[in-house]
Design a protein that fits this description.
The structure holds two protein chains of two kinds. By secondary structure, chain A is an all-alpha fold. In chain A, 75% of the residues lie in helices and 0% in strands. In chain A, helix 3 runs antiparallel to helix 4. The chains are: A mainly alpha, B mainly alpha.
């Protein structure tokens, strides 16, 4: 399998749409086109092997299932994972003649994807830094009262950042990287220390994603309890995620009532009365 | 003569769409969503202030740093639309009030959004989609695209208009006692589902086996650990990462490099072995 210029250019365009500061909007760009599962679908269609594309997408999605970018810090770049990593993984897998649905193909995809994704954060910071130029235009426009220009600052100029740091790198890396990946695989055998380390890290990387989420949720040691209960439900009792969510809603309802009762108690003891204002609050 | 200024649905829709498509298009580490916010307020300012200089004055309420979870954040944009309307009608609201409200809401909304959307809703959707796509079928990916995009668009739209309708009353709800209780409750759902996601999709195992002189295994560490608590290593690694990042203030990238070091040593001593070959 090789990737021609036309295919590489399409992948480059998708990279512009999905990466953070994404030209297709956050929900459609980053959260849809950027997901490895969706990336697998797109790459499969572009490269003409849908099954292999989806298989790679599924494997990489497992690594990045709980990817968050709290405060704009990223640990992996979706454009690199989905539109550089997946195509390269597809080439590597098909050039070795591996079964696309097998475990070793999935692990190879994961190792290529996480490596490219981690290195790809450079692109993320490059785009964000270059956007500072357009923003400086924007501040001048605000100062001079040329408000109409703000649309261009927000929707037009960033395309230049993406042209340089998303489109071109993706196109070059997918076009030329295909042969490099094959060469690299020959140089690094699967049972050597470097590859074993890479696979072991690949297995642990989602822990970092989860830990980033936990940082938002856990403020004191007691906050670990619901997390561990959820873990136990799945690990020991083998519940699926929808079931865990439903059980967790019960605890959430109890938690809400307890909190409300407590805050009411404070209000009542401070200045009795005024507690008839709880209508329809549970529709988040 | 009734001179009350009122935002019509078309202007609000335009503002919402600008936010939906452009919250993060001109992102930088320094200003993050500030420009996305300003762009989405433009139609509102143009509608409310016919005079150009008033528009220019009004935009200065939105030049301060802004960053939040963009999904739930649309409620904040909706609230400011309503506050801007009140300001244009001379209802005792000034730019500072609007700015304080934005600054006060972006933290809590980011916290709820990340745990509710990124930590709970998306892993569930992806979990279902991955199951559908596991045989190499595109159905799961298509399922995710359709369900998520519809949910995101109409959910955010709902939040925007809800924020507009409630105005600063929404603030009371979001950061008041009731808001705190709802946040606690949502946090519980988030924490449990995140735990479930970890157990369902991540599995760190050891390959350490000790052999006696006859070459028979007398200690299979993974089996021993499983009999204590299934998934023990996975939880420990995760808590270790959490500890590094939140207690030791190590960045995510360095945390990953530490994992690389641990893996490398682990592979060398035979503690980890993914057991792969071509």
């Amino acid at each position: 399998m090789t990737i021609n210029w036309f295919q590489a250019a399409i992948l480059g365009l998708f990279a512009c749409l999905c990466s953070n500061s994404c030209m297709a909007g956050q929900a459609v760009g980053n959260y849809t086109i950027g997901r490895p599962l969706v990336g697998g679908l797109v790459c499969g269609l572009v490269l003409g092997d849908l099954k292999l594309g989806i298989a790679c997408g599924v494997a990489m999605q497992l690594v990045y299932i709980a990817l968050v970018t709290p405060g704009g810090t990223v640990s992996a770049d979706v454009r690199a994972i989905s539109y550089i990593g997946i195509p390269l993984a597809m080439v590597a897998i098909s050039s070795r003649g591996m079964n696309p649905l097998g475990t070793s193909a999935a692990n190879l995809a994961k190792s290529v994807g996480t490596l490219v994704g981690t290195v790809g954060t450079v692109l993320y910071y490059a785009v964000a830094t270059m956007n500072l130029v357009w923003q400086s235009f924007g501040w001048k426009d605000v100062e001079k009262g040329r408000l109409q220009n703000l649309y261009g600052v927000n929707f037009g100029w960033p395309w230049v950042s993406h042209l340089i740091f998303s489109f071109v790198p993706t196109m070059l890396l997918t076009h030329f990287g295909a042969s490099a990946v094959t060469a690299l695989r020959n140089a690094l055998p699967m049972d050597g220390i470097p590859m074993k380390t890479l696979f072991t890290v690949g297995g642990m990387l989602p822990c970092v994603g989860i830990a980033i989420l936990l940082r938002q949720i856990v403020n004191k040691p007691m906050d670990f309890v619901p997390f561990l209960v959820g873990f136990t439900f799945c690990a020991s009792l083998k519940l699926n995620l929808v079931s865990v969510t439903i059980v967790s809603l019960l605890f959430a309802a109890i938690m809400y009532e307890v909190q409300m009762a407590e805050s009411k108690k404070v209000v009542v003891s401070a200045s009795a009365g005024d507690d008839d204002d709880d209508e329809e609050e549970e529709d988040i | 003569m009734d001179s009350t200024k009122k935002l019509d649905k078309k202007t609000l829709s335009k503002s919402f769409n600008l936010w939906f498509w452009g919250a993060l298009t001109c992102f930088s580490q320094e200003h993050m969503q500030t420009f996305g916010y300003m762009a989405s307020m433009l139609p509102i300012l143009k509608k409310l202030y016919p005079k150009h200089e008033d528009q220019v004055n009004a935009i200065h309420a939105y030049t301060a740093f802004f960053n939040t979870n963009p999904m739930l954040g649309s409620v904040i944009v909706g609230i400011t639309a309503s506050m801007e309307e009140a300001r244009a009608n001379g209802k005792g609201i000034d730019g500072e009030t609007i700015n304080d409200m934005r600054a006060g809401l972006m933290g809590p909304i980011a916290g709820i959004g990340d745990s509710l959307i990124d930590g709970t809703l998306i892993p569930i959707l992806l979990g279902i989609a991955l199951g559908m796509s596991s045989g190499g079928s595109p159905v799961g990916a298509i399922f995710y695209i359709v369900v998520w995009v519809l949910l995101a668009y109409f959910g955010q739209r709902f939040l925007y208009f809800r924020g507009y309708k409630l105005g600063d009353k929404a603030v009371e709800f979001l950061v008041g006692e009731q808001g705190a209780a709802v946040r606690r409750a949502i946090g519980t759902v988030g924490a449990m589902v995140v735990g479930g996601v970890l157990a369902s999709w991540v599995n760190v195992t050891t390959s350490l086996k000790l052999y006696n002189s006859n070459g028979k295994v007398f200690l299979n560490l993974q089996n021993q650990l499983d009999s204590i608590f299934p998934g023990l290593l996975t939880v420990l690694i995760t808590i270790f990462c959490w500890w590094l990042m939140s207690k030791k203030h190590v960045s995510a990238i360095w945390t990953m490099l530490i994992l690389v070091a641990i893996s490398f040593v682990g592979v060398l001593v035979g503690f980890f072995n993914p057991g792969l070959s071509y």
